[in-house]
Amino acid sequence: MRVKEVAEMVGISVRTLHHYDEIGLLIPDETSEAGYRIYSQQNLAMLQQILFFRELGFPLKQIKEIVTDPAFDRLEALRLHEQMLLDKRQRLEKLLETIRKTISHAKGEMAMSAKDQFAGFDFGRNPYEQEARERWGDEAIDASDKKLNQLKQNGGMAQFQEEMNELYRKLAEVRGEDPASEEAQSAIGQWYRMLNNMGSYSLDAFKGLGQMYVDDERFTKTIDAFGAGLAQFMRDAMAIYADSNK
């Protein structure tokens, strides 16, 4: 199948498939004489695997490390995906039930305790993290979890989220400027430091993350909610910041 056919069948953009090829994540088995990418059944099977990982929140860099590992077992991964999605469905069902009860409570149809209002919420654990660690590992998880836990223990999560949203708004205000401008670089520098308060980002990783803001439609949609074109502006500003601070 050609790239356009695959994109239409799967429901992703041609640009996304091109990006997967460029970073060595999904390289088509053939290229036609005219230069068209030709995807085999094996390529489609790998694409399905990649999209399962994406659905569960794995970053592209980690997906590539997983699927290119000589020890990678596709069947084992599919079974783990199944369990992860079943766990996710169970959590969503609990949240849906909480929503239904809250609606009834708001209508005066039933009483609801304070505890019942938060049934299904669980920000303190990742139900498939340990199993993923055992199979594929991820040192960044430890650093990120440690900092998240410190924020939670200190009651600082709400404040951190507001600070992050405020910085998004600040960046949105300058998105019409040159991303290399002093104002834009000052704001994106704040973004770099803020991210490193939650994880561990090298300048190269920071630049790659900016590219993901554009390549991954979910990132783009979330970021552009603060202002149309913000994701692309941040991508450009992050690349300039990373290159100029090496």
From TrEMBL:
Cited Gene3D superfamilies: 1.10.1660.10, Antibiotic binding domain of TipA-like multidrug resistance regulators
Database matches in InterPro entries: DNA-bd_dom_put_sf, MerR-type_HTH_dom, MerR_fam, TipA-like_antibiotic-bd, TipAS_dom
Coiled coil, from the record: 78-109
PROSITE patterns assigned to the protein according to its UniProt record, in alphabetical order: HTH_MERR_2 (PS50937)
Pfam families on file: MerR_1 (PF13411), TipAS (PF07739)
UniProt-listed CDD domains: HTH_TipAL-Mta (cd01106)
Keywords of this entry: Activator, Coiled coil, DNA-binding, Transcription, Transcription regulation
Signal peptide (residue range): none
UniProt keyword annotation of Nucleotide-binding present: no
Domain HTH merR-type: 1-69
Name of the featured protein: MerR family transcriptional regulator
The species this protein was found in: Paenibacillus chungangensis
